[in-house]
Amino acid sequence: MTETRFWLIRHAIVDENARAMLYGVMDVPLCETSLLEQAPMYRALAARLPRPAAWKITPLSRTRRTAEAIVGAGYPAIQPELEPDLIEQSLGEWQGLPHAELPARLTLPKHAFWPLAGHERPPGGETMAEVIERVGSALERLAVRHPEEDVVIVSHGGTIRAAVAYCLRIGPDNALHLTVQNLSLTRLERSPEGWRVVCVNELPGY
User: Fold this and answer.
1) Distance between CA 51 and CA 81 in Å, rounded?
2) DSSP track, 164-206
3) Is the pTM of this model over 0.70?
4) Distance from CA of residue 18 to its chain's centroid?
5) Which of 22, 37, 104, 127 has the fewest CB atoms within 10 Å of its CB?
């Protein structure tokens, strides 16, 4: 095998209070009840993920705790490395706003499946188009660093949409049509021939 194989997992569901607002890159906690209720999904991920593998997480604690839960469910102990360029989209000054307050602040029409259009720039934040560029550069760097290896990345919904968009060379508004559920698995491969999308939004145990 000559490709680098990426296994991207969206972090576990966050606390109910956090879900009531736009949290972006805020370091919000996970939902403790869901951590317990979704134990079978963690066990399925622990059995499904490759070993050995290089593990990456973002600076936000929800990715670290999700990785720890997968290890606790049976995956061998790991030392994940921080990858700041794989963090969620920054919503700048809009972070912490209740969802209902966002529409009045938008400068572009709302996306059909997401609060913001792909080219909407929150004050002090970034557009989805910029996230695609950032994440794509990070994936290329990791592919060079980990040739012919498996790389497990616990990250965020926006990041994973951006990664798929980069691989498929689609625009930000198209990327926002992708569903990426919590604890779902998305697989990408980088070979000398280019990028390939193996699966998107695979749910553990199904």
Assistant:
1) 16
2) HHHHHT--HHHHTT----TT-EEEEEEETTEEEEEEEEEPTT-
3) yes
4) 17
5) 104
Is the CB of residue 122 less than 8 Å from the CB of residue 94?
A: yes
Strands in 194-202's sheet, in edge-to-edge order, are: 81-82, 54-57, 150-155, 4-10, 185-191, 194-202
Identify the H or E element spanning 136: helix 128-145
Q: What is the domain count for the chain?
A: 1
On whether the CB atoms of residues 165 and 155 are closer than 8 A, the answer is: no
> What radius of gyration, in Å, describes the C-alpha atoms of the chain?
16
Nearest-10 crossing angle of helices 157-168, 128-145: 80
Q: Which two tokens stand for residue 174?
A: 């198209």
* Residues 135-182 pLDDT 10s: 999 999 999 999 999 999 999 999 999 999 999 999 999 999 999 999
Domain residue limits at 142: 4-202
- List the one residue out of 137, 105, 141, 151 whose CA is nearest residue 4: 151
Mean pLDDT along residues 113-128: 96
3-state secondary structure 6-39: EEEEECCCECHHHHCECCCCCCCCECHHHHHHCH
